[in-house]
Design goal:
With 411 residues, the chain is of the alpha+beta class. It folds into two domains: 75 residues; 215 residues, no CATH class. It has eight helices and seven strands. Strands 1-2-3-4-7-6-5 form a seven-stranded antiparallel β-sheet. The longest helix has 41 residues. The termini are far apart.
């Protein structure tokens, strides 16, 4: 009887340990209650102990299986609620690096193509600019930029003066250039002595072209007679044809050197023009001589003379003095000074009708290192000096450095 009781106690202990692993459900509590009742029956001893132990052991096995099934079912439910495992992760690093490398390669090729196109366009533009600068228009543009940088003025194309040939009223006054900069316009002439000197900053080549009495034959070149001087000169008829024979300035070869030679006047009015400068880029004086053998022819030549003078002022971007061009057309003599530039028109004391227009510009070399504005200085004591002859020496009468300019005189 003791051995079955000991076996039953061992079995009961194992059942109790298994019951502890089962969740605390209603059936588990009932099992514990039944086990406690069985244990009490064993201790009291009786005939029904064996039967009850067998019944309890069978139920314990069934409950154990049932608990295991419940645990397994709960595990499956929890696994069902969990997220399904994702697919196997693959390493995409090489593919991404290849795509990035392709993008960089495409960007580099695009930048290289754009750079080559820009270089080609730059070379083409440089070639076109070089070809343009080698033309006459390019030379004019460079000259205009050079003058504009030096004076702050705006230079435009020349505006031709109207041709007033034919008509008893004389030459009409040419219109001023519309692109004249305000800084270059002459201010109102005061009654007192002028202290502002205006320099001729235009290319001498353009000046020679403006006053050319022929059809484009007047060229600015180094003087063959005066070393270091530059000049341009030509003689032409009123229609622009060049005079090739000797003019009255050259004289004639005569057997008797002591004889007085009287030049023969031309049958058609002629204009002799000469401009000179101390340097290649500066102009110092201009002389236009009218030669005619009759009064009516002289007036025709005066119309042409007035037109050339108007072109000269257009190229200089200056406003001519009031009434000056009209006086030239009507052969009225005058002697004026405008902002340091002297203008004199007079008739020669010689046979026929011969007139000279002499323009003496301020020497630009004196004002390169100083301002064009200067204070009027006291004149030195008067010294007897013979009067200059502007007819024979165009440079005579130019204002000396440090000497105040004479006031303007009215004709």
């Amino acid at each position: 009887m003791q051995m079955p009781v000991a076996a039953f106690a061992a079995l009961l202990g194992r059942a109790r340990q298994r019951a502890r692993t089962i969740p605390a459900t209603a059936r588990a509590l009932d099992l514990r209650r039944r086990l406690a009742m069985a244990l009490a029956s064993v201790r009291s001893g009786g005939a029904t102990v064996k039967v009850k132990v067998i019944a309890v052991a069978g139920r314990a096995a069934v409950l154990t299986k049932l608990a295991a099934a419940l645990v397994k079912r709960g595990s499956r439910r929890r696994a069902g609620k969990a997220k399904p495992p994702s697919a196997a992760t693959h390493w995409t690093g090489p593919a991404a690096a290849e795509r990035q490398s392709g993008k960089r390669l495409l960007l580099g090729e695009t930048a290289g193509l754009a750079t080559r196109l820009c270089l080609v366009a730059l070379f083409i533009a440089a070639g076109a600019a070089a070809l343009f600068l080698n033309t006459d228009a390019g030379d004019e543009v460079v000259e205009q930029l050079h003058r504009a940088a030096a004076t702050g003025g705006i230079f435009g194309d020349d505006i031709p003066s109207p041709d007033a040939a034919g008509g008893k009223g004389g030459a009409a006054r040419p219109q001023a250039a519309s692109s004249v900069a305000p800084i270059l316009l002459s201010p109102p002439e005061p009654d007192t002595a002028q202290t502002f000197v205006r320099l001729a900053m235009t290319d001498p080549k353009r000046l020679c072209k403006a006053v050319d009495p022929t059809k484009g034959l007047m060229q600015w070149h180094e003087s063959p007679a005066l070393k270091g001087q530059w000049e341009c000169d030509a003689t032409g008829n009123l229609d622009g044809t060049r005079v090739v024979e000797k003019d009255v300035e050259d004289g004639a070869d005569v057997p008797d050197q002591n004889a007085v030679y009287v030049p023969k006047l031309p049958t058609e009015p002629q204009l002799f023009v000469i401009a000179r400068g101390a340097e290649k880029d500066t102009i110092g004086s201009l002389r236009i001589k009218l030669i005619a053998d009759g009064e009516s022819k002289a007036k025709r030549g005066a119309t042409r003379l007035s037109m050339l003078t108007g072109k000269l002022f257009d190229v200089l971007q200056w406003q001519p003095p009031d009434g000056m061009l009209t006086d030239l057309a009507q052969l009225y003599p005058f002697d004026r000074t405008q902002l340091g530039t002297r203008l004199k028109f007079s008739r020669e004391d010689s046979p026929g009708w011969q007139y000279n227009l002499i323009i003496i510009f301020p020497d630009s070399r004196k004002y390169r290192q100083e301002s064009a504005f200067r204070e009027a200085e006291q004149a030195p004591p008067a010294v007897p000096v013979p009067a200059p002859n502007l007819d024979t020496d165009p440079q005579a009468g130019a204002p000396a450095e440090g000497t105040p300019l004479p006031p303007q005189t009215q004709p």
